[in-house]
Amino acid sequence: MIRRIILGTCLLLCITPSAFPKFKDDEQKYLDDQFKAILDQMQAMGNQVAALNGQLTELKQNQATLQNVIIRQQHQLQDLDEMLSSLRIGNEENFSKLKTALADLRAETDNAVSKLTGQAAAPANAPAVAAVATPAAPAPARQSPQGYVTSTSADGTTVMIDMGSAQGIQQGVKLAVYKASDPNTRVGVIEVTQVVDSGNSRASVVTMNPGVKPEFSDVVRVVTE
C-alpha cells in the first residue's frame, strides 16, 4: 500500500510541470507592460477623482458664500426700504416745518416792508396790498395774486414759487418778479413750466433787469395785463 502511494506521488510530480507551460520571455514582458499601463491608468483616474472631489468641495463653499451674500443683500434691501420710509416721513415733517418757517419769514418781511413804506403789513396768507405809489409809478387798479420765490437754481434761470393749483396757477402763466425791499418795482418776468402741487410750482426766467437775479423771498404776482 505504501509503495502505491509513493509511486502515485512521484507520478504526480512528474505530470504537474507539464500541465503549466512556461511563458516565453517576450510574452512575460508584454504582460508586465500591460499590467503597468493598467496601474498607470488607475493612478491617473485616482488623481482625476481627487481633483473632482476638490472642485466639488470648492463649489459647495462658493454656494455657501453666495447664499450668505444673498442673505446679506436681502437684509440690506430691507434696511434701505425702512430707511426710505423713514426719509419720506422725515421729509414730510421737514417740509411742514419749512412751510411754517417760510410763513414766519414772510410775515417778518412784510413787517419790515411796512415799516419802510409806512403801511400796515398784510396777513401772511392773504394777498399783500401794494405800497403807496409814487407819482412816477401809479398803483394798479386791481391787485394780482401774490406769492414768493422759495428757491432758485445755481445759474438763476429757474425758480420755485409757493403758488400752485390752489391759487389757479397753470403751466404757461407768467408772473412779475419784485424785490421784497421794493414790492412796487418789477424787476423781471417768469413763466410757469410745471405745477408741482396745490401750493408749489416751477418756473423759468423770461426776462430780468440787468444785474438782477431772482432770490429767495422775492415777491411774484400773476401778470394781468
Radius of gyration from CA coordinates: 49 Å
User: Mean pLDDT, nearest integer?
Assistant: 76
Strands across the major sheet, in which order?
A: 1-2-5-4-3-6
- Low-confidence sequence ranges: 124-137
Count the E strands: 6
Looking at how many chains there are and whether they match, the oligomeric state comes to single chain
Q: Class by helix and strand content?
A: alpha+beta
Number of helices: 2
Order of helices and strands: HHEEEEEE
Percentage of residues in helical conformation: 40-55%
Largest sheet: 6 strands, antiparallel, barrel
Q: What's a concise summary of this model?
A:
It is built from two helices and six strands, in the order H-H-E-E-E-E-E-E. By secondary structure, the protein is an alpha+beta fold.
How would you describe this structure to a colleague?
The protein has two domains: 35-125; 146-222, Thrombin, subunit H (Beta Barrel). Helices cover 49% and strands 20% of the residues. It has 225 residues and is α+β, with helices and mostly antiparallel strands. A six-stranded antiparallel β-barrel has the order 1-2-5-4-3-6. It contains two helices and six strands. Strand 4 and strand 5 form a beta hairpin. It is rod-shaped and about 160 Å long.
Please give a handful of descriptors for the protein shown.
225 residues; alpha+beta; Thrombin, subunit H; 2 domains
Task: Break the fold down into its secondary structure elements and pairings.
Blueprint: H1 2-19, H2 25-117, E1 146-152, E2 158-161, E3 174-179, E4 182-197, E5 200-208, E6 219-222
Antiparallel strand pairs: 1-2, 1-6, 2-5, 3-4, 3-6, 4-5
